[in-house]
Each structure stands twice: as structure tokens, then as C-alpha cells.
Amino acid sequence: MTPEEFQVELEKLGLPLSEFQMEQFATYFELLVEWNQKMNLTAITELQEVYLKHFYDSITLAFSDTFEPQGKLCDVGSGAGFPSIPLKIVFPDLEITIVDSLNKRITFLSTLVEALELKGVSLYHDRAETFGQNKEYRESFDFVTARAVARLNVLTELCVPLVKRDGYFFALKAAKSDEELVEAKPAIALLGGKLIQAEDVSLPNGDTRHIITIQKKKETPKKYPRKPGLPNKQPLK
Questions:
Q1: Angle at which helices 103-115 and 19-36 pack, to 10 degrees?
Q2: How far apart are CA 74 and CA 62, in angstroms?
Q3: Model's pTM, two decimal places?
Q4: Of 166, 152, 179, which Cα lies nearest the Cα of 236?
Q5: Which residues pair with 213 in a beta bridge?
Q6: Model confidence over 60-114: pLDDT tens digits?
Q7: What pairing do the DSSP bridges indicate for beta strands 208-216 and 163-173?
Q8: Per-residue pLDDT tens for 115-124?
Q9: What is the dihedral of CA 137, 157, 41, 19, to 10 degrees?
Q10: Rounded to whole angstroms, how far apart are CA atoms 90 and 193?
Q11: b/e string for 59-94 if b means 16 or more Cβ within 10 A?
């Protein structure tokens, strides 16, 4: 997907991009490739692949019925800024918080945010388990996202504690797994969530992505998330 095709596809979906927004995506690509030479940010560095598999893929979250292009969004384990930074470029009114456990990635994101002239973006070098127990941020976000390879029961423990009541947690998955959904249902209920839907979204090349939507229905018990490392080592069942 070329930058021009990227712009056309989003316009078809009612998301027209200005010249400045297209320049922001171009700068994002340049910095991603430049920084990737000195630290491991992504295995995808070819221009058309980045625009399709990182930029467009991130924006698929906006196709969900429950997503709103304003409010407070927290991106857990954002890595190189996906999906939150592409969403911020397309929807400037979103207030973005990014949490990542690797300080080098936060340094990259800080440089990126400044270069893209983004306002309303906060970056935190922290573990999701610790951040989720911080009273200042716990149950304070309208939306929480994770575009991660961890299983859903693990992601649920890391992310749902940050969602405010009636807000949403979106897990962005490359592969569909009914088994994973069944496995995660006890954890979702325990943490105060309710599975709303698991929907498929198609990329322009025909590849399918999966968005799992969980709504926060009640307060998460105070002991969750557990101490760093435990959610991965001993997932909730």
C-alpha cells in the first residue's frame, strides 16, 4: 500500500487526511526506519508494508462500533506507537497515554511525538502491572488498547483495571482464536468486564484482523493486576 493508496482507502471510509496529516505519516515512517537501525522496533520496514501492516492496521480500531474519536485512550505495551500514534494523527482530539516497559522505546516515542507536533500525548516508562495499580490512572480511561501477542486472559488482567466503568478495552489480534476467547471468559468476568463482540476487519490486501471488545461493567478487585510478571507466568483461569 503506497501512501497515496493509504490516503484514498481512508477517504473511502470517511476519514480524509489533510496534507499535514500525510506529512506526519511520512515523518513517522522515516523515523521508524531510522531508529530501527539502532534498536529493535519492528521487523516491517518496507514503505508499502509499513503503511498497510502498521498504519492502516492501527486505524482499523476506528471501524469498531464502540470506538469514539475523542476521550482518553491508553495504549499498553505500545512498542513503536501502534495503534495509538496513527489513531492520534487521524483523530487529533484523542488524548493519548502510552505505557511501555522499555525505556529505549519511550525515548523513540518522545522524539516521534515532538517531530509530529502532537499535543495531548503522555508517555510512561512503566510495567502495565504497576501502572494499573497507580491510583492516578487506575479506572480512568475511556478506552484501553493492546496490539500484542499475549493471550487474551493475560491482556485482560493488564488492561481492564485501567478502564473506567462503561469504558472499553480493545484487544487487536492478528489471528482469531475461539479457544482463547473461551479461556479468557473467567478472567474477563473476574476483572469486571463483559465480552461485547469479537469482530473481523479486512485490510485492503484481503488479510483479516480481529478486534475483541470488552466493556467495563464493574470495579476491578483491588488486587488486580498482580505483581509484575505474574499475569504472564500464572494467567487467570
A1: 150
A2: 15
A3: 0.94
A4: 152
A5: 170, 197
A6: 999 888 998 889 999 999 889 999 999 999 999 999 999 999 999 999 999 999 9
A7: antiparallel
A8: 999 999 999 9
A9: -60
A10: 28
A11: bbbbebebbeeebbbbbbbbbbbbbbbbbbbbbeeb
